[in-house]
Structures are given as C-alpha cells and as structure tokens.
Amino acid sequence: MTEIRDRIIQIIAEQAMLDPSELKPEMSPQEIGIDSLGLVESIFAIEEAFDISVPFNANEPEKSDFDISSLGAIIGAVEKLVAEKA
Questions:
Q1: Would you tell me which of 38, 50, 62, 85 could form a disulfide with 34, CB atoms 3.0–4.6 Å apart?
Q2: What range(s) does the Carrier domain occupy (predicted)?
Q3: By residue range, what is the domain housing residue 34?
Q4: Chain centre distance of CA 38
Q5: How many domains, the chain?
Q6: How do residues 2-53 score in pLDDT, each as one tens digit?
Q7: Among candidate residues 16, 46, 43, 19, the one with its CA nearest the CA of residue 31
C-alpha cells in the first residue's frame, strides 16, 4: 500500500505546490493549503491514477462517504476503494 500512499501524497503536494516531504498524515487539506477547487482537482487526479470512483460531492463534502478531514484519512479511504476494486 506504500505505492498508493506515495502517489496520493505526490498528487496532493503537486496541487498545493509543496514538496511531498512537507506533508504530514494529520494535516487537513486546509492546513496543506488546498481550497475546495484544489480538492476537487486532487480527487479527479486520484480517481484517474487508481481507476476508481471516489464517492465525493464537491457541493456537499460533509455529506460524502469519503473522509477528507486529513491527508491520512484520504489515503485510508483510497486504499479501501482500491482494495474493494481488486
């Protein structure tokens, strides 16, 4: 699962224009510097990278089944989706 984690960190870091080493699992998208549009673009990039469909509604993120509260939560949710797809 390290590949999944590393790829997600890379996608989020690119979106925030940060070095991946600056990102910590406990950081929220806001702390990383990603706004709602950036988050949507990151989700699209993650879906494309892993060929998965993320249950995320940009208009109502709090009603989503996809936990975006922190980088670690996003990684865990994507790992679960990838595992379910396999």
A1: 38
A2: 2-82
A3: 1-85
A4: 10
A5: 1
A6: 999 999 999 999 999 999 999 999 999 999 999 989 999 999 999 999 999 9
A7: 16
